[in-house]
Write a sequence for this structure.
């Protein structure tokens, strides 16, 4: 399955790193948001480093602020 291949590649890119570029960047914010698309599945759970990465990103205050701003934007558009 192509998705599993991509998740494996992403996990390999994280090898030994907490974040994709070493420190938390907008790239991590975006990647964690993309990974949330799979929350209704257990696909990410099959990749321990990737699962831990997603949790680390989601715990960041910057991530939480960005998600709140995104959700508030949807509320205001209605």
């Amino acid at each position: 399955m192509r998705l599993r291949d991509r998740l494996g590649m992403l996990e390999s890119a994280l090898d030994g790193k907490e974040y994709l570029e070493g420190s938390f960047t907008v790239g991590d914010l975006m990647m964690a948001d993309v990974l949330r698309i799979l929350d209704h599945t257990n696909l990410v759970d099959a990749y321990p480093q990737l699962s831990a990465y997603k949790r680390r990103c989601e715990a960041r205050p910057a991530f939480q602020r960005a998600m709140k701003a995104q959700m508030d934007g949807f509320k205001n558009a209605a």
